[in-house]
Amino acid sequence: MGRPPCCDKASVKKGPWTPEEDAKLLAYTSNHGTGNWTSVPQRAGLKRCGKSCRLRYTNYLRPNLKHENFTQEEEDLIVTLHAMLGSRWSLIVNQLPGRTDNDVKNYWNTKLSKKLRQRGIDPITHRPITELMESIGTLAIRPPHTAAGASSSSYLPMNPADQAPAFHDDVPYHTALQQQQVITLLDPDAPGVAASPDHQLKWSDFLADDAAALEAATPQAVLGQYPEAAVAGGGARAYGDIDSTAADVGGGGEDSAGSAFIDAMLDSDKEMGVDQLIADLLADPAYYYGGGSSSTSGMGWGC
DNA sequence: AAATCGGGCAACCGCGCGCAG
DNA sequence: CCTGCGCGCGGTTGCCCGATT
Predict the structure, then answer these.
(1) Which residue is nearest nucleotide B6, judged by alpha carbon to C1' distance?
(2) Residues A183, A119 share a domain
(3) Is the pTM of the predicted complex or chain greater than 0.90?
């Protein structure tokens, strides 16, 4: 049953590619295309895993790749899109012809995130670091929620990967809806986006670590108790899994509950003018930094 | 001149999803 | 329907090389 293994991992070569290997791979792909990577190493005469071949090709050998430094415009676009999408490099790279996700990811990790920090902006949340510190202070004195079995931490969803403080009562960006809109604009074919006109956020995500509360609480009750959860959840999800569509909400009788939650999210975003904000951001990358803080207006990344 | 440090980047790793068998 | 691989993706690692001590 199933397919045979793609390669014998014990015998495949690892490490840097040699010019000879590059030449073989390039010759093969130019003659036969790039279908079925698992068979490429054997057909091209390479002792590599197909996965390694695909990576080498897409990140280095692929035609039309740019190998020169990032331009100012590209930097601005990366920063803006990262603010909207988080580290979804595949989506970001769709707007940067000739660049690879690995390129952009490395450039972000080594250059852009440092530039942001130097300017006092948290590269994860894209908010002034001073504001984050204030938020943390506010959180520390926030009274615990004990009703409905909700733990004090359960309404502050955090992406374990980045551990970003995802709570702020006036967050104008990073709501899941906002991010979803951007993804839809950038990639109409994105799975789970266009197919779900009434995109449903999984409200139970906000209580995912509290099974008792999950069973007991209705979405309305949850929102009533934790009005900040809608915003906080959006903030966290800006860097987490936002592909929660049909697969996430399809079963378990969550449909009506989900709809109520969505309505709350929609209302919240509408109040904040998120729709217009997205349109402005996409029309003018400088808008994001020029909107409120003169110190960060027109970042001038290249200087 | 040698040793150490740190930045940059290529490549690998592990996971989730879709689908072939 | 179930299993497990192919593929794509994001995160991480490790090597190389230039700068610094």
Answers:
(1) A110
(2) yes
(3) no
